[in-house]
Amino acid sequence: MSPVLIILAVIVVLALYVIGIYNTLIVLKNRIAEALSSIGIQLKRKVDLIPNLIETVKGYASHEKSVFEGVTKARTAVMSATEKGDIGAELAANNQLTGALKTLFAVAEAYPDLKANISFLDLQQQLTDTEDKIAYSRQFFNSNVLEYNAKVQMFPNNLLVGLFGFKAEKYFETTDEEQKNVKVQF
Amino acid sequence: MNLYSQIWNNKVRTFLTFVLFSLLTFAFFAVVGQMVGFRSNAYIIVSIVFTLGSAFTSYFFSDKMVLASVGAKIATKAEYFNLYTVCENLTMAAGMPMPKVYVMQDDAPNAFATGRNPKNAVVCVSTGLLAIMDRSELEGVIAHELSHIKNYDILLSTVVGAMAGVISTITNQLMWITSFGGINNDEENNNSPFAIIGYIVALLLIPAVLFLVQMAISRRREYQADASGALITRYPEGLARALEKLQRNTIASPIATAGNAHLFISDPFKRNRKFISWAQNLLSTHPPLEDRIRILRGL
Fold it and tell me: Tell me, what's the ipTM?
């Protein structure tokens, strides 16, 4: 075999390798994007449940104005972060909202009629479920980022990826508060 | 063993089960063919048709047969909110398609998964399980079942279960035929060596093979599904508490049979563990719950 052929073969193998890396990374990146949008969907679901919840609680405890204001404010913060398209800020605002909702449900404890209301119970259940869904979709996002980052940072991929503009992605870290309560129960 | 080698391993074992099954059915038809005095080789064709038919049926319909055998009904989100949403959430976390969710009417708490791949999978739990588990315990149980789906354990276990059913049926047939001394009573091959061999094969070999296959598929996989389930929920304590509840349960399931016992999350027969000898332990389809709980608590 002539040296030219050997060099050609090496070039072909290298090219195939680069194409392989590039395509794998594109697949992983798209998966991250999809996981990201599913977090957004769940946050939207939570935000949509809140007006009904406030209406129901108002029917029994209309004078607890500060609680409603707290929840409404936190909800608006989540929605404005959504409009900016910044899921990180959205999740941070969501933590505020979760805190405000906890206060709301603590207040509801004082109203036995409210606690027996079917639509209140239903909303409470749906919110608990949505809270779980947010946590799990974030977990799925993080495990996708883990896989992608490992590919980006591994040798020799790390020498190539810069050329195509692939960078390691950030995880959505949980706050200390969340780590303390693994399960959010209202 | 990582997930991909485990999936590969399960597919290979499923294939080997088909091979073993084909050999057994072929042997069965050969014995019967000799006994009834077929001089032609028609039994070869019969056995091939029969084997392919059973393989096809068990691959595509074994999940439906299992569900029918336990009388399971599909669970709607409205009726079983917790169960349905827990499945929805965990499949989201594991990045897998949503399986069909079923509930069986049974006071004994138990659960199983079946199907042939993650796109055609079923999770089924008993009403007894739903009655005693809280949401995080239910998450532990469902994550365990979803791991069986993701690992393709369900393919192997449902196919093996279906084949086991077929073999036990033909074993019964074989014993029935041989106990009447064959169909052509008046001929002198009444007590031919084939009849005796057939009888011995039916009596000893086939059930032994079945038991060994069942054992091989189930026990280590339970530990693995516990661990990968805990990776989905990030909360091993949920499943550990659920298993403790299963341990305290004393109700034996009326709908479990030898053919489907290996599918369940814990041994549905409630054998008394204190009096289990090593031989029984060898034949049991499930590892002891206390070991599984201990391992989960150590994660």
Answer: 0.70
Q: Min CA distance, B27 vs chain A (Å)? A: 49
- Nearest CA to B233 among B34, B67, B94? B94
Measured between CB atoms, which of B93, B135, B136 is closest to A136? B93
Q: Which residues of B are catalytic?
A: 145
Contacts of B88 in chain A (CB under 8 A): 133
- Of A100 and B51, which is predicted with more confidence? A100
Rounded to 5°, the CA angle A133-A138-A142 comes to 150
Q: What is d(CA A151, CA A13) in angstroms, rounded to the nearest whole number?
A: 19
- Give B110-148 as a DSSP string: -EEEEEEETTEEEEEEEHHHHHH--HHHHHHHHHHHHHH
For B98-132, write each residue's pLDDT tens digit. 999 999 998 889 899 998 899 999 999 999 999 99
Q: Which helix (H) or strand (E) holds B194?
A: helix B193-200
Nearest CB to B90 within list A38, A136, A144: A136
Return the closest-CA partner of residue A183 out of A119, A136, A122, A123: A136
Mark yes or no for CB contact A183/B136 under 8 Å. Answer: yes
| CB-based contact A42:A137 (threshold 8 Å) | yes
Q: How far is CA B117 from CA A108, A186, B159, B212, B233, in A?
A: 45, 36, 12, 24, 21
Asked if the Cβ–Cβ distance from A182 to B90 is below 8 Å, we say no
Residue among B89, B98, B231, B237 with most chain A CBs within 10 A, to mutate: B89
